[in-house]
Model the fold of this input.
Amino acid sequence: MITGKKVLLGNSKRKKPVTSKNEEIQNRTSKVSTSKHEPAKVDHARIEKAVREILIAVGEDPDREGLLETPARVARMYAEIFSGLHKDPRIHLKRVFTENYDEIVLVRDIEFHSMCEHHLLPFTGKAHVGYLPNGKVVGLSKLARVVDEVARRPQVQERMTETIANMVEQELGARGVVVLIESSHSCMTMRGIRKSGASCTTSAMRGIFRENLSSRAEILGLILNQNR
Ligand SMILES: [Zn+2]
Done:
């Protein structure tokens, strides 16, 4: 039985990168990767070219006034929303503190925005990340950073959930980890079956939360029953 749990509310906020006009022009210079295994830094010129092609392919005129800047804008946007491809979120879990605290640590309601890799449409929602420490704790904002960086890649929600749980388990050596993600997928709401309001929940349990039913019920209760 776990008692004296600590529930902390999370809220991830991002600063919008500021880009000067000069940087914008520099960013358009094409840099093609030479290796298939090393992820290329974002190739803005290539995205611009591709977006222009898509506009033509759907029957638009990419040279009309309203669309002139669109390819460059989309390239900058993709660089931002896929920036997680060039980061290792584990870095945020490397700086740990030795603590005797051995009760649940739970960060709820970490807002995230990701892109479904099947349709390249956004899915957004909230992630809840909890763990039972084994002598090591991490700064609470770091869990939100991990969620944020894992989200900023072409994703499926199931893999995103597993990835976060694995990272927390491995880096913190936690006795238990739970990750629960609730989200709404644009590919379900604006196309296909067009079910607005449908939400998708995925969860990943590790350690004691997987093995022990009462521990699992306790943490799920903490995640799901508060403020609802
Ligand atoms: Zn999709």
User: Anything to note?
Assistant: The pocket of zinc ion is lined by residues 116, 118-119, 121, 185, 187 (CB under 6 Å).
